[in-house]
Amino acid sequence: MDHISDLIQKINGMIIILLVGIAAHHSNLNAQTVDLDPNEIRGSVAKKPIAVLQNRFFLKSMRPEFGVLYGSVLNESYTKSTLTGARISMFVNEWVGAEAQMIKVAVSDSDDRKALNDITYRKKDDPSQLVSPDPEVNPIRGITDLSVIAAPFYGKLSLLDWAIVYTDLYGSLGLANVKTDQGAKTAITMGGGIRTYWATRWSTRLDFRNRSYTETRGGKSTRKNAWSFDLGISVLAF
Predict the structure, then answer these.
(1) Model's pTM, two decimal places?
(2) Which fold has domain 58-236?
(3) To which H or E segment does residue 233 belong?
(4) DSSP-derived 3-state class of residue 15
(5) What is the greatest pairwise CA distance in the chain?
(6) Alpha helices in the chain (DSSP H)
(7) What angle do CA 98, 7, 142 make, to 5 degrees?
(8) CB atoms within 10 A of CB 213
(9) Which residues contact 49 (CB under 8 A, 6 or more apart)?
(10) Do 205 and 234 touch, CB atoms closer than 8 A?
(11) Where are the domains of the chain?
(12) b vs e for 2-26, b when ≥16 Cβ sit within 10 Å of the residue's Cβ?
């Protein structure tokens, strides 16, 4: 658990640093197209023109988007949870939209749980019976998300002065129906991610999300925060 917590803290720190850097960068630039004159580039004489700053050449508002995802639940101690699913979304303008996700979860025992199950002992009240210690788990079996997405940060990267890569940083907030062994749970879901557009229609995504809901542990009601990450590919319908 410690190494997972450290990983989550590092990832959160990286995202915060990235957001601060992009915010500082955008505060120094206006929204107008910047045309660079190769003769005005500082330093030694440029060997070839640099022409990588330009407006985004496509719009995403009111364009349905479909995608698939693959990921994992991060903070499960005794199970391994693999996420596969599909999503559909649409922005009402360039910055705000809505998204629905349908996710199936494949669950298997972790190495820690297998090691515990290999241990056997005799029951105190019935020495003739061998039992194994088994931790109390409530694995996730499926997830349905409905979220509002805000993507106020937009940037462009030059790939070897050969292509321009467009990126969005975004956050999400909404509700989720989480199916567990204790039944369906209504959860609050929030997260963030980065999207990279490789063409006018295709993009790749990296998402981190937390789904918070109530479950029973040791006979008591407790709050569960299920952190997950996923990689995805999306395509705009037209």
Answers:
(1) 0.71
(2) Porin (2.40.160)
(3) strand 220-236
(4) helix
(5) 89
(6) 2-27, 111-117
(7) 45
(8) 20
(9) 36, 38
(10) yes
(11) 58-236
(12) eeeeeebeeeeeeeeeeeeebeeee
Residue 62 falls in which region: left (phi positive, over 0), alpha (psi -120 to 50) or beta: left
Please count the CA atoms within 13 angstroms of the CA of 28 that sit on its side-chain side.
Answer: 5
- 238 residues of the chain, pLDDT tens digit each: 555 555 566 566 556 555 544 444 444 434 344 444 555 544 445 455 544 445 566 788 888 999 999 999 998 888 899 999 999 999 998 889 999 999 999 998 888 778 777 777 777 777 777 777 778 889 999 999 999 999 988 888 777 777 778 888 999 999 999 999 999 999 999 999 999 987 778 899 999 999 999 999 888 999 999 999 999 999 988 7
CB 160 within 8 A of CB 188: no
Would you state the pLDDT for residue 161?
76
The helix (run of H) or strand (run of E) holding residue 167 is: strand 163-180
What pLDDT score was predicted for residue 55? 57
Backbone angle region of 162, left / alpha / beta, with phi > 0 → left and psi within -120 to 50 → alpha: alpha
The pair of three-digit structure tokens given for residue 59, joined into one six-digit string: 């719009």
Asked if 127 contacts 142 with a C-beta cutoff of 8 angstroms, the reply is no
Token readout for 190 is 């929030």
Secondary structure class of 146 (helix, strand, coil): strand
| Chain centre distance of CA 143 | 14
Q: Which residue has the tokens 């009240």?
A: 125
Q: Please say whether the beta carbons of 38 and 192 come within 8 A.
A: no
Distance separating alpha carbons of residues 175 and 157, to the nearest angstrom: 33
CA 158/CA 162 separation, integer angstroms: 7
